[in-house]
Amino acid sequence: MEEKNMIRNASEGVIGIHEKNPHYFQYKGKEILLITSAEHYGAVINKRFDYVKYFDKLAKYGCNYTRIYPGAFNQPKGTWMKESNMADLGENYIAPWARSDVPGFAGGGNKFDLSKWDPEYFTRLDDFLIEAAKRDIIVEICFFNCMYIKYWPLVPLQIDANINGVGDCDIIDFQTLDCEPLVREQLRYIEKLIIETNKHNNVIYEFCDEPTLRLTNSQKAFKWVSTLIDKAIEVEEKLPKKHLLAQQLEIGIDFCDDERISVITTQYIRLNDRQIGGVPALDSCYCYDKPIECNETMYIMAWVTESLIPISRLESWDFMVHGGAAYNQLNGFFIVSNPGGDDEVNHAILQNLKNLRDFLESFDYIKMIRGDRDIVQKMSVGGHVSIMAEKGRQYALYIHHCFPNLGRFKGSYFEPNYGNYEPVVTLAMEKGDYNVTFIDPETMKVIKETSITCDGGTVDVACPPYSLDIAVKILAAE
Questions:
Q1: Taking the CB of residue 54, how many other CB atoms lie within 10 A of it?
Q2: Which of 97, 278, 330, 436 is least enclosed, having the fewest CB within 10 Å?
Q3: Where do the domains of the chain lie?
Q4: pLDDT one-digit tens code per residue, 58-94
Q5: Is-contact 5 259, C-beta < 8 A?
Q6: Contact 255, 206 (CB under 8 A)
Q7: Does domain 371-476 bear CATH number 1.10.760?
Q8: Does domain 16-365 match CATH 3.20.20.80?
């Protein structure tokens, strides 16, 4: 019998893959779900952003996960939102590299000197990770992002942004091995970040977000990412701690069965541009026995400006009750002028995520896996059913009604489809008696409690009336 590859895990004490269920993480000796709605990745590189207030708000609602771009990427004024943590930073942009005494950086201030590191940056990064750890917040450090034409002049590794002559290439070559001087600096950058953050237990390293979104050649991008992975492993071999390594799944970029990569990251909830995310990614990749993240969804307050509360709930519950390990709703409420994201709508979004956590943690979920397709036999009305199960013991269901948005971002997020629903769901279950609780996901109020008996074939579960979605908890009767 052929043995499975030994997936690279983290050192003891560092967030790692759970020893009993590889679809989930463990941290501080117990299983952990990563659920959040995080700011737009500029919390460290934007010196004006108060990340302590940001962390306090996340922790208040049980959100325990955030994601950063650590310096190789920022954006011009007016990108996505009027105010963005990644855009129009001027001299408030702090990067791993020190500024030179030569003026002319397109983003404001002096150009960068790639031969020197900026101590102030690494002090800020270290404090950021310490403050996150105080609140048990996991930080995903994403080294690179795909490059856009308008962003290219603002990248320190672009030739006009530094005094070292590095980055004399076309933007489409950034995620390839074609420009050797650029690749050398990219590898130095990864090495420095890993060395500086190795002592922290609450870190996951991610290599490149959206590597082929701007149509970089997939084969070239794959070899480039693979080289980055090798470098990270080489660096950590000499250091005390080993961390989980993650890479996003995209068309042409698939490290799912690579034992070096421990975490499969996905984005959005459908096939969107070249990105594969949500339940389709779970359908395709769950077999690899790795934690699967949905670490970015439609940018609320930017790309999505209406129906924010139900859309966030539909996306997050659908993914996590299908067996996801981590979920991040990209959040435009957390900005420099409002780092705590104080807004009634945002509070409702964060409360939804707390409700989701409470629901999942009410189960012994580490013993559960995503439901086999043969569990849900049929539903009397149209809709979607997410299911996790430990067969014969516990079943978590999320039933919802929505359709893909038909506007600008077709198929990339769910539109609520309100109605008068009272479906009967037919489940194939093990023989036994079960207690059934129906819960309103918006309020977490119990709508109805009942019991069912299955003879080892199928059993009908009749839902009480609801208008959009309902959560169902089924436990074997003791």
A1: 26
A2: 436
A3: 16-365, 371-476
A4: 999 999 999 999 999 889 988 888 899 999 999 999 9
A5: yes
A6: no
A7: no
A8: yes
